[in-house]
Amino acid sequence: MKILVLNAGSSTQKSSLYNFPQRQLLWNSMVDWTSGEITVKLANGIELKQTVGSRSRSETLSHILSSTMEKPDEIEVIGHRIVHGGRKYSEPIAITEEVKREIAKLSSLAPIHNPANLEGIEVTENFFGKKVPQYAFFDTAFFHSLPDEASIYPGPYAWQEKGIRRYGFHGISHEYCMQRSADILNRNLNTLRLIICHLGNGCSISAILNGRCIDTTMGFTPLDGLMMGTRPGSLDPGILIYLLRQENYTSEQLEHELNYESGLKGISGISSDLRQIISANKQGNLRAKLAFDIYIHRLRSFIGAMLAGLGGLDALVFTAGVGENSSIVRSLICDSFKFLGLELDHRLNENHPVDQDIATTTSSIRVLVIKTEEDLVIAKYCYDIQTRALH
């Protein structure tokens, strides 16, 4: 069964074609909107690169599909990662006009993501026709297990009744890493205490206790929690009131600055890309140093909060672009928790680990680097759904 998966992030557009049940990846592509580069990797190892040029997001995706799909009619099912599903969607669902309207309605809560997710749906419907079944997989679904004390904000109780609560995001990634951690450690998931750090352009942490998520850093929207590429993370809400009243901000101006001009980019004035921040820091750029120091400080602080909630820790997990590739971030974070008996094997840490435990043999806490496989999770769900439907 040929399964196409579309995964739009805040700074990238990923597409993958799988053959199931073999779990064979036939090709995958990534558009990096920061650099304007398109990379397509084929199953035979050949890597092709292009630039986005003047193409829009929809035109770029259409171009990728046109140039990679030799036999479009072989596609049997398409899966889409959707960032915000609100309270309504706790499971994968077949995409209908009503579902698209709900995704659009939630765009105000995920303005960087949901509109891009909808574009992907529209492009594939136009390219393949509406006879090919398409399914939505929601990042928020994994966090429906959050207990009330973690999900309800301490404002007026009426907020909860209006649907204002902590939803959590990157759920597909956190779910995969939770399961993969148990595999790597050869442990029963129901006996594990995990802290999973999904660190990319968007960043979030989850606390996993006995196979269930009990806390996470992102909230009502993907703006909450950790400092990110262009988003600030947690803020004193009084700042927003001050800007609206004293600085005469409009809500549109505020939304733009919070989503696109804050975080690493806002503090450094250089880029949302942590690699460029680290490079500028080494060259003595003081704002780059400040941005990096805030990033590490907040990451340490939130991990500490998750530790308290779990009452201990079996493994600290790093995933996504920064988590998987930045040895300096992993080192600085792990060194902060030496007092708990966590010992990082610095040789393993520097050796580009993938799905590997990089703690020393004597460490009281394991440290895992896991290559997140959101697309594979979505493809597997698509296969299972279609297989059941056919029988």
Would you write up a description of this structure?
This protein is an alpha/beta fold. The protein folds into two domains: 2-138, 2-Layer Sandwich (Nucleotidyltransferase, domain 5), CATH 3.30.420; 187-369, Nucleotidyltransferase, domain 5 (2-Layer Sandwich). It is built from 15 helices and 14 strands. It has helices at 57-68, 97-105, 114-128, 148-151, 157-161, 171-185, 237-245, 251-260, 263-268, 274-282, 286-310, 320-325, 327-335, 346-350, 374-390, and strands spanning 2-8, 12-19, 24-32, 37-42, 47-51, 75-82, 93-94, 134-138, 193-199, 203-209, 212-216, 315-319, 356-357, 366-369. A hairpin with a 4-residue loop joins strand 4 and strand 5.
Would you spell out the secondary-structure blueprint of this structure?
Layout: E1 2-8, E2 12-19, E3 24-32, E4 37-42, E5 47-51, H1 57-68, E6 75-82, E7 93-94, H2 97-105, H3 114-128, E8 134-138, H4 148-151, H5 157-161, H6 171-185, E9 193-199, E10 203-209, E11 212-216, H7 237-245, H8 251-260, H9 263-268, H10 274-282, H11 286-310, E12 315-319, H12 320-325, H13 327-335, H14 346-350, E13 356-357, E14 366-369, H15 374-390
Parallel strand pairs: 1-6, 6-8, 9-12, 12-14
Antiparallel strand pairs: 1-2, 2-3, 3-4, 4-5, 7-8, 9-10, 10-11, 13-14
Helix pairs in contact: 1-3, 10-11
